[in-house]
Predict the structure of histidine kinase.
Amino acid sequence: FEVRATRLPARGVDGSLVMVTLHDITALRRLEQMRADFVANASHELRTPLSSLIGFTETLATSAREDSAAREQFLAIMLEQGRRMQRLIEDLLSLSRIEMEEHTPPSDPINLREVIGGVARFLEIRAREKNMDIRLEGEDAPVVVIGDGDQLTQIFQNLLDNALKYGRPSTPVVVRWTQVERGPAAMPAAVRAPCLRVSVIDQGEGIAKEHLPRLTERFYRVDKARSRAMGGTGLGLAIVKHVVVRHRGAMTLESEIGKGTTINLFLPLYEPTLG
Ligand code: ADP
C-alpha cells in the first residue's frame, strides 16, 4: 500500500485537517516488475547469439583466416546465430504488434479449416523428417470464426511446431475441432456458448504439472538449453495466449509425462452453428 496525506482547507479555529488515503499499488508494481523482467530477459536472449557472432567474426578475421575447414564451420555457426536473433526479433515484434491491437477485436470471418490445412501443408516436410504426420479431424462443414487470418495462422504454426518438436518420432499429431456447448469460464460470457474447440494433440514427453500455469509467460521454458537447441524462442505460447485473448477466446493445457500434451483453444463462432 502507498500512503498519501492531503492537507484539506483550514476549518474553524482548530486549524487544517489532513486526509490520509491508502492506495493499493501491488498490481502496478507487479506490472512494472514484469516489464523490467521482460526487458532484461529479451536483452539477455539477444546478447547470447550476438556475443557468439562477434566472437566468431573476430576469430575469422585473425587466426582462422587461412584454415578453410574452420572457416566453414564458423560460418555455419554464425549463420545459425544470426537466424536465431532474427527469430527472436520477429517474435518480439509479433508480440508487441498483438499487444497494441489487443483492445480492437478482429472482425473478419475466417474459415479455420483453411487456416489449419494451410499450416499443416506448410509443416508437412518437417513432420516427415521425424516420420510424423499431421492428422486433421473434424466436421467437414466450414468452421468460421471471427478473427484475424494472419494471427490465427501464426498461432497454429506455433502450436503445431511445438507438437512436432516435442512429439515422439513416428507418432501422429492430431488437430481436432468441434463445436462445444460451453467454453471455459475465462471466455467472455457473450461468446462462451456455443463456441468452437480446436485441440492440438501430441504424443510426446509431456509437461510436469507444476510448469503448466507458467508456460504462457514470455521466455518461460521447461528446459531452456533444450528449447534453444531446437530453435525455440520461448515466446511461442505467449503469442498464442495473446492472440486468443484478442479473439475473446480461451486456452487450456492438459499434459501427462510420458504420454503427451493437448492444447485446447476455444474461439467464438462467426455464426451460431457450424456451416
Ligand atoms: P519454445 O520456443 O521454447 O518452444 P514456447 O513458448 O512455444 O517456447 O513453449 C514454452 C515451453 O513449453 C517450451 O520450451 C517447452 O518446454 C514447453 N512446451 C510447449 N509445447 C510443448 C509440447 N507440445 N510438449 C512438451 N512441452 C511443450
Notes: The chain has a mean pLDDT of 91.
